[in-house]
Amino acid sequence: MSAGSPSDREVRRAAAAHWFNEHRAGDMTEADKRLFAQWLCQAPENRAAYRQMERDWALFGAVAQDPQILAAREQDRCAFDRPSHLQRVALIAASVLLALTTSWAVIDSGLTGGVDFDRPAFTSRPEATTYRTSLGQHSTFTLPDGSSVTLDTDSELRVGTMRELRKLQLVRGRAFFNVAKDPSRPFIVYAGDKTVRALGTAFQVSMEGEDVTVTLVEGSVRVEEDTGLLRPNYHRVDMQEPGGQLSAPEDSNWIVEQVDVQVQTSWLNGHLVFLSDPLADAVAEINRYSSQKIVFTGNRIPEREILGVFRTGDVGSFVRALELDGIAKVVSRNDVQIELRVQ
C-alpha cells in the first residue's frame, strides 16, 4: 500500500458510512440495493463495519445530519457506478468518520476508582464519553442525569447524548446500571444488536462476544433485537419481575428464567458466588479477573460442579479449593498460568 493511501479498515468504514447514509435517505434504486447486498456479502468485516455504523448512529443521533455530510452524500450518489468507488467513498465519508470519532472523550479509570477527563476537540458536536476498566478492576461513576454505572473487569462503555434520550453502548464486558427516574427520557443501553430500554430501574447487562445477558434487579426493562437491514428477525421481551434474566445468544433462541440476584451481582462486592456451577463456567469466570489464568492439561476440564464463594482475582484460593476437594492437582505454576491436572 502506498504512503497516504487509505487502509482496508478505513475504506471499509467509509463504504459503510456511504451505504448507511444512502439507506437513511430512503431513495436507493434497485441497482443500489443489489450493489449494497453484494458489498455486504463480500466479507464478514463489511457486515461488521455496517453494524458498527448503525450503533454509532443510534448512540450519537444527529451527528450524521451535519450539512457537510449530507452534501458529501449528494456528491457521491453515483460513485458506486465507477471502478474507483471505494477510493472516492473513503474521501467523501471522511467527514462522517471524523464526526463520529473526534467527538469522543476518553476516561481511563485508575485502580483507586478516580477518573481523568479528556475534553472533546469539537464541543459543538454531540459529545460521547468512553469509560473503561482494566483487568481485575471495577469502577463506579455517575452520569450527568444522576444515574450510576458500575463497570466490571475489562469492560468498556460509551455514553452518548443525554438530552431527549439517554443513550449508552456497552462495547464489551459487564455493567450494572442504577437508573435515575425520568419518564420523559428513556434510558437506552445498546449491547451488540440488542437494545435495553428502561425509565427508573436497576439492571445488569453483560456481553460475551455477541451473546448478551440482561438481569433485572428492580423496576422493569424492555429488551429488543435491533431491526437494521442485517437483522430482519425481530425479538422483544418485557421484563417486569425482579430476578428475571434474559439470555440472548447471537445464533439461538432467547431464554428467560428466574435467578438469584444476589449471586448474579456478587461481583459488585468483590466476590464470585458459585452454587453448583459447572467447573468450566467457574474457571472461565475466575480467569476474567486475573492475568494468571487457570488451565487444565490437555484442556480436559472435568464435568464437576463447584460450590463456594471466592474473592475476584484470588486465583490461589480457587486452586486450593480444587485441590482440597480432590478435583485437580497443580502441575506447574508461573506468572502467566497455573496448570492443573485432573485427579
From TrEMBL:
FecR protein domain residues: 130-222
Domain called FecR N-terminal: residue spans: 15-55
One matching Pfam family: FecR
GO terms, molecular function: sigma factor antagonist activity
InterPro entries: FecR, FecR_N, Ferrdict_sens_TM
Protein name per its UniProtKB record: DUF4880 domain-containing protein
Organism name: Exilibacterium tricleocarpae
Lineage, broadest ranks: Bacteria, Pseudomonadati, Pseudomonadota, Gammaproteobacteria, Cellvibrionales
